[in-house]
Amino acid sequence: MEHTLIVAGIGPGDRDYILPKALQTIESAHYLVGGHRALSDYAKESQETYPVTGKLSELAEWLEKALMHDDVVVMVSGDPGYYSLLPWLKKRFSSVKIEVIPGISSIQAAFSLLTEPWQGASWLSFHGRMPDDKDLIYGKGRKLAFLTDYEHNPAYIALYLMERGWPKETEAAACEHISYENQAVRRSTLEDISHLDGFGESVMVVIG
């Protein structure tokens, strides 16, 4: 019998932001994979779980064994189509049937917090990578959104953009811990954000 690898987006964090189909699939899973926080929030004692770490080769071995017995649900934060494990899973398990359940991306949630539409925005990432400079060219009215990390935080990105011609008075915002009780939003200008401390793993939105 062919078993399915199900990749379920769990949204930005809080349970109120997860789609009912994803939640139902997660709760009915026998084999469940996810980050430590996701497993803490969603896993049940009756489930066999595996925490996602940087050791993907070990994860692949566990998935191979689990798929021999049943479907496996892999939880990913936000939406599976945006900088998640999905590309690696598709490549590593190319012969396995894969199902994807979408989730609300943290970038979608950030635009909602700012009451701004996101159509036309460029979704990029500084989280463990650097965008191409050609994708960062200034344009009046242009919108950019970034995932950040502790090294490339909003302050770093603000300076990076100003060095590449973005006006210092450009509107910018940093959103951290979206949907959680300690959610924080700082909305100001690139110049102000360039002095902002923290907001390591967050979303930054820039509106030219």
Compute the CA-based radius of gyration: 19 Å
- Structure summary, number of beta strands: 10
Low-confidence stretches: none
Shape: elongated
> Kindly state the mean pLDDT as a whole number?
96
The percentage helix is 25-40%
Q: How many helical stretches?
A: 7
Bin the strand percentage: 15-25%
Major beta sheet summary? 5 strands, parallel
Query: How many angstroms does the end-to-end distance come to?
Result: 53 Å
Order of helices and strands: EHEHEHEHEHEEHEEHE
**Looking across the biggest beta sheet, what order are the strands in?**
3-2-4-1-5
Structural class: alpha/beta
Short structural description:
This protein has 208 residues and is an alpha/beta fold. It has helices spanning 20-28, 36-42, 56-67, 86-92, 106-113, 154-163, 190-193; strands at residues 4-9, 31-34, 48-51, 72-76, 97-101, 122-125, 143-147, 171-176, 184-189, 202-207. The strands form two sheets. A five-stranded parallel β-sheet has the order 3-2-4-1-5, with helices on both faces. Strands 6-7-10-8-9 form a five-stranded mixed β-sheet.
Q: What does this protein look like?
A:
The protein is an alpha/beta fold and 208 residues long. The protein contains 7 helices and 10 strands. It has a 5-stranded parallel sheet, with helices on both faces.
Task: Give the arrangement of secondary structure elements.
Elements: E1 4-9, H1 20-28, E2 31-34, H2 36-42, E3 48-51, H3 56-67, E4 72-76, H4 86-92, E5 97-101, H5 106-113, E6 122-125, E7 143-147, H6 154-163, E8 171-176, E9 184-189, H7 190-193, E10 202-207
Parallel strand pairs: 1-4, 1-5, 2-3, 2-4, 6-7
Antiparallel strand pairs: 7-10, 8-9, 8-10
